[in-house]
Amino acid sequence: MAKLKYAFKTDEKKSAKTSARNNRISWKDSVEICRVITGKNVNKMINYLTDVTLMKTAIPYKRFNKDLAHKKGIAAGKYPINTSKEFIKLLKNLINNADNKGLDTENLTIINAQANKGVTHMRGARMFGRRKSKSSNINIIAEERI
């Protein structure tokens, strides 16, 4: 796999990365979750996303908010449960990567989270019509901050 290039520089000794390719989750939901978690503590975001999966708190939608209902305390929002579960797995993987590097996992701050469109596959039989399956690629970088 080719090494990913980023537009900003990170200290390799104080940062940890994780990525996932072609996850069967919505790209639009992934973009909104990435916007919310960037710049925050990793452990707090795991707790936040678990609340989203339990439908206690909603993810505020800023970009893809056409015809969305208002939620309590925020404007337009949703409960993207499957996407939140995948992000929880990625954040736990990020903590394990940071622990393997010898970083302090309590002070990890997400400095970059990005979601890109993945491969689109055609599914379904001819007589029932075809449909496209959605997927997204996710990259998360966290840095140890005190």
Task: Write a compact overview of the structure shown.
With 146 residues, the chain is α+β, with helices and mostly antiparallel strands. 30% of the residues lie in helices and 26% in strands.
Question: How does this model look, in words?
Answer:
Helices cover 30% and strands 26% of the residues. It has 146 residues and is α+β, with helices and mostly antiparallel strands. It has a single domain, classed as Ribosomal protein L22/L17 (Ribosomal Protein L22, Chain A, Alpha-Beta Complex). The strands form three sheets. A three-stranded antiparallel sheet has the order 1-7-4. α2 (42-53) runs antiparallel to α3 (81-101). The longest helix has 21 residues, at 81-101. The chain is globular, with a radius of gyration of 17 Å. It starts with 14 loop residues before the first strand and ends with a strand.
